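Open question from group meeting: does this chain pack into something compact, or does most of it stay loose? Before anyone orders reagents, we agreed to write out a predicted structure and look at it together. Recording both the input and the output here so the notebook holds the full record.
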Amino acid sequence: MNHMLPKNTTAPVEQFVPIAALDSASIVAAYRRWANVYDTVFGGVSSWGRRRAVSMVNRLPGTDVLEVGVGTGLALPHYNRDKRITGIDLSAEMLRKARERTRRDGLSHVKALHEMDAEATNFADDSFDIAVAMFVASVVPNPRRLLAEMRRLVRPGGNILMVNHFAAAKGPRWWLERAMAPASRRLGWHPDFAMDGIFSPEDLAHIEAESVPPVGIFTLVRLRT
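Structure tokens returned:
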């Protein structure tokens, strides 16, 4: 599939506008609060999605992998050692935990960990074979800018992977997610985040998506570049 945005263009990207918009400052503040307890509070519930995404990365061709929103580095030990992992995150506190994990566990396949805005990185075009974002799409201020940046960074023939919570279309969960939405800034993520908040209709026609066990609250999405 062709890139929707050609490399090195400045074409406008439609923005997702949730009930309570996030900004970089609120995201940094939220994850400063979460950093010391993130693994305990979220590590278990997110482990299935992380393992599923990393398992797919390990099966895909290519060695240069960008993990967007690497956080405390929970996924880093699970990549095959023939992959070269670069991680980025906006939170210095979360990255400190990831660096500690990398040193403690001797993760020699982790090439670098950078404090960086996922919507505007410093990497050159076509720097990676795979870009993977785990539980990030509903965190960033402008999800479609995130996707456009991931497209810019992934080589033709590569893969973009995302695992995320996407809002239900109806039913009790829809009501709960909408009720939680005003707390987005405090939580640091959008409970009401819908799949079309990041993917265009063309993308939605081409993505491969699978529900992640055990209860299917998360979805793993693959988009070929």
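Observations to bring back to the group:
Confidence is low (pLDDT under 50) at residues 1-21, 170-190.
The longest helix spans residues 38-59.
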